[in-house]
Design brief:
Distance between the termini: 51 Å
Low-confidence stretches: none
Strand content: under 5%
Structural class: mainly alpha
Radius of gyration: 17 Å
Helix content: 55-70%
Number of strands: 0
Mean pLDDT: 91
Number of helices: 5
Order of helices and strands: HHHHH
Shape: elongated
């Protein structure tokens, strides 16, 4: 059995939350290989990323954590 066939077989035995992590990992690997035309295509391929970005854009700045608290040296 090839590694590809083994991986396919094993994926069917995993819970859905792990599958989501695998999809994200695969998207990142494709990004590293330059298989996406642009960053938008990559971000759209990550499960839930579009919603997270839209939620962040809709959040008032007054509710956001200041950058200096995230990165003290910025």
């Amino acid at each position: 059995m090839s590694n590809r066939d083994y991986a396919r077989t094993q994926i069917d035995t995993l819970p859905e939350d792990i599958i989501e992590k695998l999809v994200e990992f695969i998207s990142f690997q494709k990004f590293n290989l330059g298989l996406y035309d642009n960053d938008t295509d990559y971000l759209n391929s990550v499960p839930g990323m579009t919603e997270k970005i839209k939620n962040g854009m809709d959040t008032p700045l007054s509710e956001c954590v200041p950058l200096s608290e995230v990165w003290a040296n910025v």
